[in-house]
Amino acid sequence: MRTSKALERLRAIEASEEFENIQREQLPYRTTALAVVTLRAELHLTQQQLAAMVGTTQSVIARLESGRHPAELTLLNRIAEAAGKPLQVEFGRTDIRIAEHEPERMVAETRAAYPTSGDELLDAFNDANTSRNWTRARRLAAHMEQEPLTPRRRVALALTAANRHDHEAAASWAEAALGGELPPASRDVAILIRGRSLLHRGNPRLALRALSEPDSGSHVAWLIRAAMADAHVELGNGARAMAEVQRALAMAPDVSEAHYHAARTAWHADRIWDALSHIAIYRAAAPDNRDGLMLHGSILGYFGSHHDDQDALRTALTLFDRARADGDCEAIRLYAVTAARLGDWRKAFSAGAKLLRHRGDEQTGECQHTRMGQGHREYVNNHLVPDALQALGEADPPALEAAVDEAVKRFGQSPYLASQRALARAVAADLRGTLSALGLDRGAIASASASDQVIVAAAMYSRRDYAGAYEILRRVEADLTRPSGLLRLAECAAAAGEFEEAQRVLIVLGEDDDDAAHVSRVALSVMRLRDAVSRAAQQPDVDLRWFALTGSSEHATPRESPWEGEHHRTTPMLDILPWGSGLN
What is the pTM of this model? Predict the structure, then answer.
């Protein structure tokens, strides 16, 4: 067995004069690090390879192996699962150990259910894949690729391609395997891989055709039903998706992952309470699973955002905080957007800065977002910062300007942030400061952009210069938001004595079918009953924003909302298939 440099470096500490003090203070960290380094050396893995197996980054493994930091039990458990070994925590000892034998009941039961195939290479692959030893499984698959002589070997190659997210190759190998004679279980695995690969390639209709009726006794039958549900979700058919979910649950009543899938599907079908019920069942079985934490948080975040339920948003924030502990950038993104919706711009911007520092895979520099063409900086500038500033609102100008200062410090200056600084000064009645922030003088107001002119009008309105505000708003009427901007125009017109103009705008708004239309019709009736409106109009008690919420997600479906995971098209945990023994 080779000894890694990290292992040698840790053991060298023992030779120092201060070792006893270090041992007394940091022994739990050191022994945990030694356990991980020893395991990695035994498996002949680099830090990068172990990180890939566990689903984290090389920097997280390096931090763990340094011996200077505490270890999350959830991370250690994932390392143990990836290595096919149990995690043992013993009171009375000073260490946390990863044992030498494979503990998983699922492994033993799956192996017992399927006899060996007579193909030693395939049997070894099945053993490695079922034990979740992905590195060994990939190595054996590479040997099989040189001689893909049998349909069952082709299924193994399809499985390997699917697990490395090469969906085109996975579909090709699965199709080739289905062209030959396969046992029922192996045929269902090939059907499943072909269907999910088509889903990932954006072909849900083809996927449904490819996902034929599963064998009733197959160990992947429920997964085929789950894939059918995912396809119906992609096609926007929530009712049919839920019907397939019920079939999947009937086939796998004791499989916790089936409840995870049911929760995700119910959420997409806008059945929030069903979704919460299923995710609660799943998390009772796997309370620290990152995918479970993120889905639970996403459901609550969506619910809280749409129903203005601050408690739901705060609970979601706590769940995302736990999920981001190992540096997953999607968990960081979800934590940031939740903090933004809560108006906690400090936490949102701190998480946004962490997102920008996230470097992804050491070799490619990619992460789940960049692989989908979604850059972190673009997300922070175009979504996170506007969400946080809009949640903060216009009622507290000093707080808004402080948030803008922090955003500029962390993310750099931008036209949007300059406009928000100007808006903060405008609602504080600081006309000179508003013009300065916009880089304008009084003579250039009429030639400025419509949005900049509206901000100047806001400053005049705050100073009760209603005539000046009215002149600007009338000039940019076509660009005003509806209803807030047009209501401001009507109010300023009336206060400036332009009653006919005020009535005209209110008539336009009254044609709609919403609360603002009702307010407009009442206001119009009042104006028609009175001959005049006092010029000493007071600012209204209602909270009219100068700018409408830019987030298109205010009335979005779950899949269109920021709570939808951005790194997968289908249920993520069902895309890693450890059912290798089913290929026999």
Answer: 0.67
pLDDT tens, 292-328?
Answer: 999 999 999 998 988 888 999 999 999 999 999 878 8
Let me know: does 279 contact 288? Beta carbons within 8 Å. no
Cβ atoms 366, 355 nearer than 8 A: no
Reduced to 3 states (helix: H, G, I; strand: E, B; else coil), residue 205 is: helix
Both tokens of 28, joined, read: 């739990």
What burial class does residue 514 get, using C-beta atoms within 10 Å of its C-beta: 0-12 exposed, 13-18 middle, 19+ buried? Answer: exposed
**pLDDT exceeds cutoff 50 at 276:** yes
For residue 103, which phi and psi values (nearest 5 degrees)? -95, -15
CA distances from 531 to 73, 295, 487, 522, 528 (A): 74, 59, 20, 16, 7
What is the distance between the alpha carbons of residues 344 and 524, in angstroms, rounded to a whole number?
39
Residue 368: predicted pLDDT:
61
Q: Are 317 and 339 in contact (CB under 8 A)?
A: yes
Q: Give the pLDDT score at 269.
A: 85
Residue 405 has pLDDT above 70, yes or no: yes
d(CA 12, CA 19): 10
The stretch 462-490 carries a mean pLDDT of: 88
- Both tokens assigned to 14: 């023992």
Residue 73: closest CA among 256, 288, 332: 288
Torsion angle (degrees, nearest 10) of CA 447, 449, 454, 460 = -30
Please give the Cα distance from 568 to 176 (Å, whole number).
26
Which one-letter amino acid corresponds to residue 78?
R
Domain residue ranges in the chain: 5-98
**C-alpha closest to that of 81 among 57, 102, 96, 112:** 102
Tokens of 48: 């990068």
- Rounded Cα distance, 400 and 408, in Å: 12
Which tokens belong to 254? 């004791």
Q: CB-based contacts of 48: which residues, under 8 Å, 6+ apart?
A: 58, 362, 363
The residue assigned the tokens 């962490």 is 354
Strand runs (DSSP E) across 34-93, as ranges? 87-89
My answer on whether omega of the bond before 483 falls inside 30° of 0, hence cis, is yes
Sign of CA dihedral 29, 35, 41, 47: negative
* Architecture (CATH level 2) of domain 5-98: Orthogonal Bundle (1.10)
DSSP H or E segment with residue 142: helix 134-146
Residue with tokens 């088509």: 198
Residue type present at position 475: R
pLDDT of 232: 92
**DSSP-derived secondary structure for 528-539:** HH-S---SSPPP
pLDDT per residue as tens digits for the range 521-546 = 666 666 665 544 444 444 444 445 66
Q: Specify whether the CB–CB gap between 179 and 211 falls below 8 A.
A: no
The dihedrals phi and psi of 88, each to the nearest 5 degrees, come to -120, 120
CA distances from 40 to 57, 86, 474 (A): 15, 15, 70
Cα separation, 339 vs 72, whole angstroms? 23
Please, are residues 261 and 226 in contact by the beta-carbon 8 Å criterion?
yes
